[in-house]
Amino acid sequence: MEEGARKQRRKRYIQDAVLASVATAGVLAVVALAPAVLLAVGQIAKQSGYKMGWRARTAAGRLAQRGLVRFVERNGKKHIEITEAGRRHFELESAKLEARTRRKGRWDKRYRMVIFDVPEKRKGARERLRSLMRELGFLRVQDSVWVSPYECEELVALIKAELRIGKDILYVIVESIENDGWIRKHFGLPEK
Length: 192
Description:
Alpha-Beta Plaits; 18% strand; 2 domains; 192 residues; 3-stranded antiparallel beta sheet; 4-stranded antiparallel beta sheet; 55% helix; Arc Repressor Mutant, subunit A; alpha+beta
């Protein structure tokens, strides 16, 4: 089981590197894809003995199936370019990484709440939103109310765009929450 999880992680790293390379370049010649990804993945590829050429192209194919990139022909050469969905996905992943590193800062004594009411017909988006809230370290206060002590307005805006449920989500900044001792404890925040 662990070996399978390790392989999945490697595939995801390579796909992320391909997407990052294409997002940075805008359009990238397919023949330039392997060197760009090799630079982005770095030591992971060297240590695992990966042959990056076909791995990068396979990862690019998977990204194309997901609609994050597309292959185009220019001047008789095959290129890969990022789609709007790919750009949104890349921005969201970048913002998630930035949010994780920002948590080390000083707390401004305000909570950020995400409140949502996603209709049943958009159940998949609602489940993805809940998954993202957990992944980003939000604490569930009630079924559709999540809280974080860290600035995340830009991240929530990207989530709204990615899931296309902007009108169903509210972002609220509050000065206090009644009986918030358990929230402070969860986040390791100082007591009043």
